[in-house]
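pasting for ref
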Amino acid sequence: WERNVLEEVAYRTEILTSRDGTEQRIAQRVNPRYSFNFDVRAGHARAAELERLLGKRQASNYRFAHPRASTLSERGHPAAAGFTGRIDGEVQATARTDRVLDAQLRVAVNPGVYPGDYMVGYTHPAADTSHEGLEVFTLRPNWAEPVRLNFAQFTEILDRQRGVTGFNAPRKFTDRVIQFGLMIRNEGQENRIRGVFERARGQQGEFYMVDPLSAQFAPVASISAGALSLSIPGRAVADRFASEGIYRNIAIRTTSGMIYRRVTSISVVSGNSGVNVTPALPAIAASEIIGIHWLLKVRFAADTLVFSWETDAVARMTINVRPLEDI
């Protein structure tokens, strides 16, 4: 534990993308594959044994104790029993003295297939919140790590190598990837991120999350029961988001929790931005509204989820998601 233990959870997705950006995503793995990266230190006879195993039997299967066995055992988690795996790839070993050997190991857990194999049959708790038939990811970014946004416009370029070039943008939206950090401090938070990744099977599935970069805005006045529209001061919201295909849901943060609604249209009404929603809203006093955020439909931008365990109970993560058109 001088350095963090890295745990990787990896699915495999085949993505077929059409010219207009429409995706067909096919899951190639029912169960994910797991691997761990950690350091070991062996002294005296154990150092000699480690050198012998790495020198002659590195590719063999071994039974490994789980790096987080203590915490998982307290939680009654089946993974606490450890796993069978093999040492994967090249191993870097350092002799601290003639009797102490350090090694950096990457261990690939044998893929689980049968009941009793590592994590096979174990299901994380169900999603606690849903909207429009998809779960809502409720963990919020750790702002100790900056949130990053990458843009990429797919363009077809006609270049005859002699002069003027022509180009065409067949997609109505710009591809973007949002990157943000998470700090996992307890079992509930760990189950949330593992659960959504498990149910999505990596890049295949879709879910909703609050846009971490959208500035919150507030309505002009309190919301009356049965209201189907919100009036936002000024026309900036309408000018910016009326034709954007990814901004089609909102999350209203109130003092008593979150309220999610589908946006049917956005227009300018009497100099303000009118945001029409469905279904009807409950009565919400202006003093109870903390802010309104965009709720994005997203998918994971990678098939691998990496936990960087600082202790056997606390981890840092970097998550990449890709917003999707929601029309």
